[in-house]
Specification:
The protein is of the alpha/beta class. It has helices spanning 17-31, 51-60, 115-133, 143-153, 191-197, 218-229, 243-252, 267-274, 305-317, 319-336, 343-350; strands at 3-10, 35-42, 65-66, 69-70, 73-76, 89-93, 137-140, 158-159, 178-182, 206-210, 235-239, 255-257, 279-282, 298-301.
């Protein structure tokens, strides 16, 4: 039995994939007889000048022992948790601070061409290379995250896909005429694409949106779209829902919309497939493209509202084809280790630094 700390950076009043990942990992560590707990510090992305301070806070922590008891292993997840030091540190990388990396210079980043911004970006990226490079074991939650790490930091990471948090509980029932969208409500998740699409989706179809707003002004923006298209009677914002309610929503949706920009991983894609639902995503949605195959288990379309409308109208017009795609998605989930059985291999990998003679050579800068 090992004593393990899983490290999480928590934005107060928000809940997303990272929180689910940490909680589920701890549950499965405990189920295998380990003593596991979470260490969380609050994370605030603003003002950006304070990001170095937050990285330094993690760097300054002594995580080798508590109350005289030795900590055998720490597991970092996302920025800035992996700045913590320990002789045996695993990292299961959710993502880095993307505004300094792949989003830099685009509409989803607040980093400009000010020399102070560039200096901050260099300090963060250089710090990431050091902190992640010292890991005894370095992994990422998707190929997309691992490829970013290699491209920007010259570090190699093993891809360890997170199994689904609700395991065998997902169900599939007869489809009802609604589209389901699940995820945090912010610009990069691009729910506005689906809202704008609804004016061209068959009027018998509604849209159910699960998730809480975590960006200022986002609901005002969404409501302006709804009002402009006069689709208020066809759109329902459900907020955060229970696991049981989410299972039911997936089980009866005609299809699932999930088209964030360059997503890290996206539990939603796999949850939809586990529920036998076709997923409609975009050509630039990143991690979702590791799983969605156009015409086989879902649709991949251009990030354009009309393209999404046409895709969902196609699912409505061809229920047998939709059912076939949903069944293909479920078959993939069952064969891929994304259900509960996938945790054994994943945990063995994360705990590999506890083995004598474990090599960390794969984590060195290329």
């Amino acid at each position: 039995m090992a004593r393990i700390l899983v490290l999480g950076a928590k934005v107060p009043f928000t809940h997303g994939g990272q929180e689910i990942l940490v909680a589920t990992l701890i549950k499965h560590l405990k189920a295998r007889g380990h003593e596991a707990d979470v260490i969380e510090l609050p994370f605030n992305p603003l003002p950006k000048q304070n990001l170095l301070t937050q990285a330094a806070m993690w760097r300054s922590l002594d995580l080798e022992q508590f109350a005289g008891s030795k900590i055998d292993l720490i597991i970092g997840t996302k920025f800035p948790t992996y700045y913590a030091r320990h002789p045996k540190k695993s990292v299961w990388l959710v993502h880095q601070l993307r505004s300094f990396y792949d989003l830099h210079g685009g509409c989803y980043s607040d980093m400009g061409d000010d020399p102070r911004d560039e200096a901050l970006r260099r300090m963060i990226t250089d710090g990431d290379t050091v902190a992640l490079g010292e890991s005894a074991y370095l992994s990422a939650i998707s190929k997309n995250v691992a490829e970013r790490l290699q491209s920007f930091n010259g570090l190699s990471a093993t891809t360890l896909y997170p199994p689904l948090p609700l395991g065998e509980r997902y169900q599939s029932r007869s489809a009802k005429p609604y589209i389901l969208s699940v995820g945090r409500l912010c610009r990069i998740k691009r729910v506005d694409l689906m809202l704008n699409a609804m004016k061209n989706v068959s009027p018998e179809v509604s849209l159910k949106v699960v998730g809480g707003a975590d960006e200022p002004g986002v609901m005002e923006y969404f409501n302006s779209i709804i009002k402009g298209h006069d689709i208020g009677a066809r759109v329902e914002f459900l907020g955060r829902v229970s696991d049981e309610a989410l299972i039911d929503l997936y089980a009866e949706a005609m299809g699932v919309f999930y088209a964030p920009f360059d997503e890290d991983y996206g539990y939603v894609t796999l949850e939809a497939m586990a529920s036998g639902r076709p997923v409609v995503t975009a050509t630039d949605s990143g991690g979702t493209l590791e799983f969605v195959k156009d015409g086989e288990n879902g649709r991949i379309v251009s990030p354009d509202s009309l393209a999404f409308a046409e895709a969902f109208n196609g699912l409505l017009a061809d229920p047998e084809g939709s059912k076939r795609m949903g069944a293909a998605g479920r078959a993939f989930i069952e064969s891929s280790g994304m259900l509960s059985q996938g945790w054994d291999t994943l945990i063995d990998a994360l705990l590999s630094p506890l083995s004598e003679g474990e090599s960390s050579s794969t984590n060195k800068a290329a």
